[in-house]
Design goal:
This protein has about 200 residues and is an alpha/beta fold. About 55% of the residues lie in helices and about 10% in strands. Strand 4, helix 5 and strand 5 form a beta-alpha-beta unit.
Length: about 200
């Protein structure tokens, strides 16, 4: 028995086939658009992650602490290791050792932390010698002293120190100060400013 097809049946089959093709085509377009959208979002997300990594990454810093007190050295190194693990601390036990280290080094430190009351050569003399040396003139110098004497603060500011830190009494305050110090942009150096020359935990509270 043969099945007879009318013109309406053929038209219906043709329309259904065309409709199915259109649906499949639209579905294909949608899937491709979705894929591109997801891919673009992934690219944007990846770029964001890369930018975040670049902005949050810390360039390794090499600093020198000139201080003759063993306990102060230990507390300083420990505080820096906690708040700024990207910072390498080198110790000079007095002013004479500091100047020998600086004069014989091929690569100079990024920052010098300088105690004032040291044997053989004190911090005041070291500061003047460093600022008189063209090779070392650009190195930021942070005075790190037990003294809060206004005359010493004024004299070190005039001699070219960048910051003055009275040694804090607690380890927590030292960490707070260290965190602030290493959040500054030392690559552009910190221009000495008399109004902000002295940095203490009280200033940061």
């Amino acid at each position: 028995m043969k099945t007879s097809f009318t013109s309406n049946t053929i038209a219906y089959q043709f329309n259904f086939s065309t409709y199915s093709y259109q649906v499949l085509f639209l579905l294909k377009v949608f899937l491709k658009a979705s894929y591109l959208c997801i891919k673009e979002k992934k690219i944007i997300m990846l770029k964001s992650i890369i930018m975040l990594a670049i902005t949050t990454a810390k360039r390794p810093l090499h600093i020198v602490l000139a201080d003759d007190d063993d306990d102060d050295q230990e507390f300083f190194v420990e505080a820096v290791s906690v708040v700024a693990p990207h910072v390498k601390v080198e110790i000079a036990n007095d002013g004479e050792e500091l100047m020998e280290l600086l004069l014989n080094k091929k690569t100079l430190p990024d920052i010098i932390f300088l105690d004032l009351n040291m044997p053989r050569k004190n911090g005041h003399i070291c500061l003047k010698e460093i600022r008189a040396n063209k090779k070392m003139l650009h190195i930021p110098i942070v005075i790190y002293s037990t003294s809060s004497n206004s005359e010493q603060i004024d004299s070190t500011f005039k001699a070219g120190a960048n910051l003055y830190i009275p040694k804090p009494e607690s380890f927590g305050d030292l960490k707070l100060i260290a965190k602030k110090i290493f959040s500054l942009n030392w690559e552009d150096s910190v221009t000495p400013d008399k109004n902000n020359f002295v940095l203490s935990a009280k200033n940061l509270a």
